[in-house]
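User: Let's play a game. I give you a shape written as C-alpha cells, and you guess the letters that built it. Ready? Here's round one.
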C-alpha cells in the first residue's frame, strides 16, 4: 500500500477515535495495524492544564472584582472576557463529559456575578430587579441541567428559585 493512502487511512481512523464512531480499542488496533506498530498516538494538549487554569481564573475574577478599584465598565469587560473564555472551553470540551463540568460551573458562576453586578449598578436598592436577575440565572441553570443532563445544575436552579420565592414571600 502506498504511503499517501496509508496516511489517509490513519487520519480517518484517528477521526473515528476522536468522534467515538468506533470503540477506542478497535481504533487502537487498526492504528497499530496500519502503522505497523511504529505509530505512537499523537499527543494532544493536556486538558488538565486548561482545567487548572480555569480553576485559577475564578479566584482571579473575585480578586479583580471585589478587591480592586476598577471602574464598573472595566470590571464588566473583565468579567465578560473571563466568561467568554469559559464558554469557549465549554464549546471545545462539549464532547468530553468529564471535562465539561469545570467550564460550565465557572461560566454559571461568572454569569451570576456579572448579572448581579450589572443589576446592582443600574438598579441600586431595588430588590425586584435583583430577584428577577437571580431567577433568570436559575432559569438558565435549569436549561443547562436539562440540556446536558446534569443533576446539580437542575437542583441548583430549583433550590435557587425556591429560596428566591421564600425571600420574596418573607418580605
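Assistant: Ready! My guess for every position:
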Amino acid at each position: 500500500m502506498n504511503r499517501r493512502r496509508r496516511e489517509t487511512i490513519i487520519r480517518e481512523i484517528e477521526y473515528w477515535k476522536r468522534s467515538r464512531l468506533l470503540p477506542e480499542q478497535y481504533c487502537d488496533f487498526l492504528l497499530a495495524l496500519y502503522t505497523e506498530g511504529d505509530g505512537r498516538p499523537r499527543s494532544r494538549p493536556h486538558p488538565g492544564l486548561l482545567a487548572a487554569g480555569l480553576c485559577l481564573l475564578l479566584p482571579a475574577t473575585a480578586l479583580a472584582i471585589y478587591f480592586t478599584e476598577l471602574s464598573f465598565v472595566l470590571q464588566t469587560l473583565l468579567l465578560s472576557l473571563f466568561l467568554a473564555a469559559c464558554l469557549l472551553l465549554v464549546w471545545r470540551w462539549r464532547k468530553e463529559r468529564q471535562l465539561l463540568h469545570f467550564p460550565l460551573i465557572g461560566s454559571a458562576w461568572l454569569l451570576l456575578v456579572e448579572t448581579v453586578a450589572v443589576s446592582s449598578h443600574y438598579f441600586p436598592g431595588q430588590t425586584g430587579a435583583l430577584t428577577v436577575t437571580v431567577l433568570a440565572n436559575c432559569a438558565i441553570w435549569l436549561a443547562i441541567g436539562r440540556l446536558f443532563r446534569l443533576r446539580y445544575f437542575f437542583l441548583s436552579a430549583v433550590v435557587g428559585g425556591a429560596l428566591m420565592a421564600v425571600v420574596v414571600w418573607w418580605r
